[in-house]
Design brief:
The complex is a heterodimer of chains A (294) and B (516).
Chain A lengths: L1 H32 L3 H7 L11 H7 L2 H34 L6 H13 L4 H11 L7 H4 L6 H11 L4 H10 L3 H12 L1 H17 L2 H6 L8 H17 L1 H5 L12 H36 L1
Helix pairs in contact in A: 1-15, 3-15, 4-8, 4-11, 5-8, 11-15, 13-15
Chain B lengths: L1 H52 L15 E9 L6 H16 L1 E9 H13 L6 E4 L6 H6 L7 H7 L1 H5 L3 H5 L2 E2 L2 E2 L2 E2 L5 E2 L2 E5 H6 L14 H10 L4 E4 L33 H15 L22 E6 L6 H8 L5 E5 L4 E2 L6 E4 L6 H13 L1 H9 L6 E3 L4 E4 L10 H4 L7 E2 L6 H11 L1 E2 L13 H19 L5 H15 L1 H18 L4
Parallel strand pairs in B: 1-2, 1-3, 9-10, 12-17, 15-16
Antiparallel strand pairs in B: 3-13, 4-5, 6-13, 7-12, 8-10, 8-11, 14-15
Helix pairs in contact in B: 5-12, 16-17
Classes of the chains: A mainly alpha (294), B alpha/beta (516).
Chain lengths: 294, 516
């Protein structure tokens, strides 16, 4: 009895320690973003800062339209992108999962092939700007992330676990392909849809590179690009001695201070932390279903 | 049975093969058509040269018939401006009237400028003007890739006024193999290394600046500060104060000035050893800020306002105002320790892309930016009354929060056309021009060290310097102990190989230019 007790205590202690080690960095980021710049300079990063100030947030909220618009762009892109992407991924995944589909292997290979090879940055850029004419449109942020071959293969893997008998019996009952897909397959695939939906949404949320390449209009800059810009420009200037010696005048006070960088992290990652718990329910279920059936 | 299986296997493989071939064909088709479209702009320079000459024949009277065009201009900025669109509109109003052209301003932030421009350039997108420099989106490399078009003829036909606005030595820095490929932005192009001192201490201790000839001469003053001014750091630095400028070494190539043998100096010179020793003695006496080796930006050394003296590599006219603004209003004195050296105009230039559909117009626009006061100040400071206020004469009051605050006059053009921010010396522009004029031009001007043959060594040496340089140069590490280690590591990293390669290239250059 008592050994058992000690045993479970030890296990709890281990998990408490792990949890703390994961929570502390989050807390630290939040606290630094609230710290006073001078106290960071003097004492380094502290969990409980000497002086608490919201000046870093004020720096960003000083021009609220910029950041609100960036939020708007990111949310629109994430939501629209995730919905369209899920539709495409599940349609393609479902098709591939059907063993009675004749071109199954070729199509699978076609999808798989794009995981190994891609055209490279420049052809991608040419395609997007000259053929699809997507430069400076919100679609430039959505289209590139619509279909990930990896997610298609995961979806296929999940859907091929759905017993063929279900499809057959539906056919016997007189259902056509669309009805089977919409009313049987999709509801059964909810865990996979939720899991992939979460991944896809994270990808869209974190995406900045496409925006960097294709977006010039200030109105379409997503949140992450705003963050990358501030960080990059600062790093760039501090890491290049040429900059100082290039006889170029530069006013460092134009750049956000340390605490502002962390404030950006909080501002950009915060909303995703709130979204996660809603998906988590499906996430766990999806994993277990996969495990039992596999 | 076995045969059947094998047969089946074969079928799958052949299907895959067929698919692969089909894909490859598809890809080839794709790239073929890409090449087709991209060829058109690539051909451009050839026929661009022709129209460049053409308008030269019928002179001024052909001008009013300019067709409306749109030009694109990519340049770097610190941050996005809220009122960018509004300023662009105002710019277009001017250019529409004078050139019948509109300009699409494309500011890109510094951190992503190079990556974005590389992609745009590689995709052969039709753009007109590209900002380039020696340190960001490098001029020489990109010219070698054929990104820019030669401007000599264009300057003659559409930019004579622009060409005349700068001395030969500026244009020389925009030349590669004898042809001009960019328009330098006239700004301070000379370096005058020296000390910056807070005026209150200079006055308090009656420091006679004329006695300070070498960096060592400042030591007694630093000691005075140390003893009498608690809380004040006598000397603030981030990466030390070693500079070829103050030790009679050429800045283009590490060679002693007036050395008839043109011997390239090793990475660690005897002056550098002396300098490190001096730094260490100051550091151990507590004259240098303790965190010197770990500070990132040069400004961190002094911007808290509690630093009495610091070293400044550039000595730019008007920088007293900038320094005193950075330290919270205390006045400072600039004391040069060396003669001004011409450091080249390559640090900021605007070039015309070879994909430009209207190179003549781009040239006309560049001329306008560099000669039209109104247009230039609009780009630098924004709209009068909204983004800045005129005070007296040429002076203006800017506002960083106004929605358009570039703080980068040197990106756009000739700074001699700019309004002066409040507090700048009234003769800032004259001083700049004077220093540029009197600055010594290195005899090695025009020599460009091609690091390609020693890429690995360069990276290795950089790694060693990243590890040791700041700590040694600020005196944090004892040179007695660490200098030998540093030198040994440099040797291992291939510093000598780089030196030999540079010597070889320099000799070739000297021979080719009849200097040896």
């Amino acid at each position: 009895m008592s050994t058992n007790r000690w045993f479970s205590l030890a296990i709890h202690a281990v998990f408490v320690a792990i949890t703390i080690s994961m929570l502390v960095p989050f807390a630290l980021v939040i606290m630094i973003s609230l710290s006073d710049e001078q106290s960071i300079l003097h004492n380094g990063f502290q969990l409980i800062p000497e002086i608490i100030t919201t000046s870093a947030y004020e720096y960003f909220l000083k021009t609220p339209d910029t950041i609100l618009r960036a939020y708007g762009v990111t949310i629109t892109v994430s939501v629209v992108g995730t919905v369209i992407s899920l539709v495409l991924t599940s349609i393609l995944g479902y098709t591939l999962s059907r063993k009675d589909y004749g071109l199954n292997r070729i199509t699978s290979f076609y999808v798989f092939f794009t995981m190994l090879f891609n055209g490279g940055l420049v052809p991608f850029y040419i395609l997007m700007t000259q053929y699809l004419q997507l430069k400076d449109t919100i679609w430039a942020l959505i289209v590139p992330g619509l279909l990930s071959p990896f997610y298609v293969l995961i979806m296929k893997g999940f859907m091929s676990k759905i017993p063929t008998e279900i499809i057959e019996s539906a056919k016997v009952e007189g259902a056509r392909e669309w009805r089977i897909y919409l009313q049987l397959i999709l509801p059964l695939s909810k865990p996979a849809l939720a899991t992939l939906g979460l991944f896809i949404m994270f990808n869209y949320w974190n995406e900045w590179f496409n925006a960097m390449l294709f977006i010039n209009t200030q109105d379409l800059v997503p949140l992450q690009l705003l963050l990358v810009r501030t960080m990059n420009t600062l790093d760039f200037i501090t890491s290049r001695p040429e900059f100082a010696t290039a006889m170029v005048s530069f006013d460092m006070s134009q750049f956000p201070k340390t605490s502002a960088k962390f404030a950006v992290v909080v501002l950009s990652a915060g909303p995703m932390l709130l979204v996660f718990p809603f998906f988590q329910r499906f996430f766990v279920k999806g994993l277990t279903i996969g495990a039992i059936k596999g | 049975m076995k045969q059947a299986i094998e047969k089946k296997k074969k079928v799958t493989w052949s299907t895959m093969l067929a698919l692969c071939t089909a894909l490859a064909a598809g890809l080839a088709g794709c790239s073929g058509s890409t090449a087709g479209t991209t060829d058109t702009p690539a051909d451009k320079p050839a026929d661009a040269a022709a129209p460049a000459d053409k308008p030269a024949d019928p002179p001024a009277d052909a001008e009013p018939e300019l067709e409306p065009v749109e030009l694109t201009w990519y340049y770097p900025q610190n941050q996005a401006h809220v009122d960018q669109a509004e300023v662009n509109e105002a710019v277009n109003k001017i250019t529409k009237e004078k050139l019948n052209a509109t300009i699409k301003l494309m500011p890109v932030d510094f951190g992503t400028y190079e990556q974005k421009l590389n992609t745009i350039v590689a995709s052969n997108e039709a753009i007109d003007i590209i900002w380039t420099s020696s340190w960001l989106f490098p001029f020489a490399n990109n010219q070698r890739k054929g990104v820019f078009q030669p401007l000599d003829d264009l300057l003659k036909s559409h930019g004579q006024k622009l060409y005349d606005s700068m001395q030969e030595k500026f244009w020389n820095d925009a030349k590669i193999d004898g042809q001009i490929y960019a328009v330098p932005n006239y700004q301070i192009s000379a370096s005058r290394a020296g000390l910056v001192l807070q005026k209150r201490f200079v006055d308090k201790y009656n420091l006679d600046l004329s006695t300070i000839k070498k960096i060592e001469d400042i030591e007694p003053f630093l000691k005075q500060i140390k003893e009498n001014e608690p809380g004040i750091v006598p000397f603030g630095t981030t990466r030390g104060f070693y500079s070829a400028l103050i030790y009679g070494i050429d800045t283009k190539v590490p060679v002693y000035k007036n050395d008839p043998t043109h011997t390239v100096l090793p990475e660690v010179t005897k002056e550098k050893r002396e300098n490190f020793k001096l730094a260490h003695s100051w550091y151990s006496q507590g004259l240098i800020n303790e965190d010197a080796a770990t500070l990132k930006s040069a400004a961190d050394a002094y911007n808290k306002g509690n630093t009495a003296v610091w070293f400044d590599f550039t000595g730019k006219p008007g920088s007293e105002v900038e320094f005193s603004a950075a330290i919270g209003g205390e006045q400072v004195v600039l004391h040069p320790l060396a003669k001004a050296v011409f450091t080249g105009a390559g640090s900021t230039m605007n070039a015309i892309s070879r994909t430009s559909k209207n190179p003549e117009r781009a040239m006309m626009f560049l001329e306008l930016v560099n000669t039209d006061k109104e247009l230039y100040n609009l780009l630098v400071y924004g709209i009068e009354g909204k983004h800045y206020q005129k005070t007296t004469g040429e002076f203006i009051k800017t506002n960083p929060e106004s929605g358009y605050f570039t703080n980068t006059d040197w990106v756009f053009g000739n700074i001699r056309n700019e309004y002066l921010p409040e507090g700048a010396p009234a003769d800032k522009l004259e001083q700049t021009a004077a220093i540029n004029d009197e600055a010594e031009v290195s005899p090695y001007n025009g020599f460009v060290f091609n690091t390609d043959p020693v890429k690995t060594e360069t990276a290795n040496v950089k790694a060693v310097n990243d590890e040791y340089y700041a700590a040694l140069a600020t005196g944090t590490l004892d040179p007695e102990e660490y200098l030998p280690i540093y030198e040994e590591k440099l040797e291992k990293a291939g510093a000598e190989v780089i030196r030999a390669e540079m010597q070889k290239q320099l000799n070739e250059w000297l021979a080719a230019n009849g200097k040896k």
